[in-house]
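Researcher: Dear colleague, please comment on this protein.
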Amino acid sequence: MKFKNKSKWSLKRLVTLSLALIIALSMFSPMTAEAKTSKVKVKSQSYTSTIATVKKKAKKVSIGTNNLTYSKVNGWGEGYVKFTAPKTKNYKFTVNSLKCSHGSYTNGHITAYMVKGSGKYQYLSSVSFKSANSYQHIASKKSKSDMTNMKGTLKLNKGETVYIYCSFLANNKKGKITTKLVIK
């Protein structure tokens, strides 16, 4: 009889430990992690090659989904965002979901820049995203000449900063232009 009681006790203990392990693993599963999303209001800035202005006006974006909002000036929504690499690797950039607050057709282009040189001889140098289409023109509606998203990769070393200039035009002069920038 003692043998049967010990076996029941061991079986109960085994089942209890198994359930505790299953619960613990399900609580810490990496599958439940959500991607980081941030909202960024981009300061209105037309294209400039003045590094001090670019550094001052560029809004910081990070890895994850960045919802960018541009205020329009005479129909144009434009400005700079900056991304500083936390580690050395190839980063994937995706720009999509271009929209105007009044629903009108919107299009524009995206250009990436890096500061080159040193001291007073610094300058902005354009860099190309490596992509299948390498097409840096984007629109709110797909057509023969317009894409609705732009994807590309850019190799950055730890601490390097890329400045991304976006310039969008909508058919109406008021409202806001929004787009998503995803960095992985």
About this structure: The radius of gyration is 25 Å. Residues 2-27 form the longest helix (26 residues).
